[in-house]
TrEMBL record:
The protein, known as: Tc1-like transposase DDE domain-containing protein
Domain Tc1-like transposase DDE: 12-120
Coiled coil residues, start to end: none
InterPro entries xref list: RNaseH-like_sf, RNaseH_sf, Tc1-like_DDE_dom
One Pfam family here: DDE_3
Recorded GO MF terms: nucleic acid binding
Amino acid sequence: MKNIKNNQLTTVELASKLEKQSKKESLDNKRRIDLTKREILFENIKEEIKQYSYSEPTIHIILDNYSVHKTELIKKICEILNMNLIYLPPYSPQFNPIEQTWRTCKIYVKRKYHDCKEKLEEFFVETYFKVVNECNFFNWWSETFLKKVL
């Protein structure tokens, strides 16, 4: 219970709160240990990597909004490696060239019967490269989306 006069925690409440906090920061806390190791690693290699990566042109990486793509770890790595993250608008597969590629491949693949898995895989690989080489999904995408964000 709080001390009503000056709205402070009682000794028991404070001890309980400190105990909970110390458990979070325990040396046995694997998540915290991993995070600390990661931070130390970043600090040790960051400047050396930056020297090499900043002499190269910036690499632009296009990502959807999957939560893993937006973690602090990814952002730090990309900053160190001189990479620019470009996030597609949420719920817009039409702006993702690979989605258009898959859609077109599926159209070809489901039109033909294959009597074994190996033939299906072979046909899919052929179809994929045909679609990638013949269709201009990337060109369309770079004209309609990429120019707007760069």
